[in-house]
Amino acid sequence: MHTAQNLARIGMGSKTISAGLLHDVPEDTPVTLKDVEDNFGSEIAALVDGVTKLGKIRLRGTKEELFLENLRKMFLAMAADIRVVIHKTGRPVA
Q: I need a surface site. Which of 3, 39, 53, 94 has the fewest CB within 10 A?
């Protein structure tokens, strides 16, 4: 709920706010990403999926390797939909 409130506060649209409400559902419940897509549409499902992928970034080696991997994933997510990054950070991207 907190994520959705932050997204609403910064003026994001209804689909981004909906994804904010749903972002943990596929990870924390038996509901699949396909279920999200079937019930809320492909755009919201793509946002939820993008946030999930960004959230799976883990330490694997050196700090430099982590930094480069984080940048790579962020750029891929931004290329697909900039709202994923806004959603993940909870604030506008400058």
A: 94
53 touches 77 (CB < 8 A): yes
Give the model's pLDDT for residue 42: 94
Active site residue 64: no
CA distance 93 to 30: 32
Q: What angle do CA 83, 86, 90 make, to 5 degrees?
A: 140
pLDDT at 55: 59
| From 24, 27, 43, 81, the catalytic residue | 27
**Residue-by-residue DSSP string for 51-94:** HHHHHT----S-HHHHHHHHHHHHHHHHHH-THHHHHHHTS---
Give the mean pLDDT per block of 10 residues along the chain (94 residues).
85 90 90 96 91 61 72 73 70 49
CA-based nearest residue to 81, from 59, 50, 60: 50
